[in-house]
Amino acid sequence: MKYLLRTILVLAVFLGMGCDCEGYWDEEPEYKSCKLTDFQLHHLNNEGIEPIEATSAGIKKEAYILRIDLITDSLLSNNNYSFYKLEDGIIKLDINTINTFNQDYPVGADIRPCFTNYPGTVEQDIGDYTQKGDTIDIMTGSKIYLALRTIPQAGLHSFKVTLTLASGKKIEKETTPIVLY
Amino acid sequence: MRKIIILILFFLPSILQAQTESPKSIIIDMTTGINVNLFEPKFGNASDCLLSAKTISPFIKGRFSYFFSSRWGAFVNLKIASATYSGKDYSNMIPNLYYNLGDDFKENNTTILHDGSIGGTYRIENKNWSIRTRLGIGIGEMLAKSPYFTIKEKGNNNLYYIKYTTGDTYMEVDELPFLNPGISLSYKYDDDILFNVDINYTQFIQKTGYTYYLTDAYTQKIIEKRKFAPKNLSGNLEIGLGVSFSF
Asked: d(Cα B160, Cα B147) in Å, to the nearest integer?
């Protein structure tokens, strides 16, 4: 009788563990739907320990970061980005130069390859996955930090950013001119 | 110096030439005490970030000894000791041209280390007092540091990762072989119970190798990789008090 009770107890514990754990990690979170309504472009100066908003004096060309702030119809707070998903995700992010970038990139050239996702830890960061063929839709952050990795010629620069959504809709914006020295 | 200590510990009972009477063939020791980490690694030109300070931590251990004759026997020893990653200021290792954006050292985290050994033991008894010496060989765990830094070059976007691994992979502890001489001074409380003072020295006989990686954070390409090892071997000194049961 004692052994029977012990066996039943052990089986109950194991079955209980199985029920609790099954599917727990695989569960897809429930996303709230949101729409991309607009975006903003910011020039950041990354000469120091972290990127800061540029001043009118310009930025050292080796320390330039372009920040794209995604604006949606839902208020995203710092702690719940992962529960929001864009209804119409971003499938392409183009950057074209409005001025001559350097000898290899004349006016109008696609300079997206000159930028790379900034790998440092920055506030509200969301990577540009479109370079790998993925879609930006789950809002793990709302700011795309793109570090300039190809050195432009010194002078006044501005860029045109185009976001292409899965539906085919395009949203374009131009940066204000900035001196890169 | 270490060799002399080992020889003294092992042959002390023979030197004392005490008397033996009605010895028991099995002794089970339970000991607790302090473990002093004597390792002060010297890396030559390698980074200071792998240096550690001497630490003192508690341990418990159990030992089973079987005596084939009145004096000679064999033992199996198992030990559990806590160990703490010693605090060290790593700010000096980041060159002036870089910012330290973040690091991962597990500083002051405490972990549990295990070791086990087997060997020969020699005892000598005189009335209620006895001395047992041992020389064992075993495998023991040692704290392995794997610090990780993200550094940013001042004045531009360049970002790098600095990573140290134990051997070629990330490990929190490394397993190394050791030699383990020791001595126990025992007082027989009654026929089956002894109280002991236990002293052991663990001399690791292999060094922990490290690998340094400098990686470009954008491309994940390894820019620099080099291997190195400390110039000296590590060791621990244990001092404990315990109780033994003899059969």
From this structure: 14
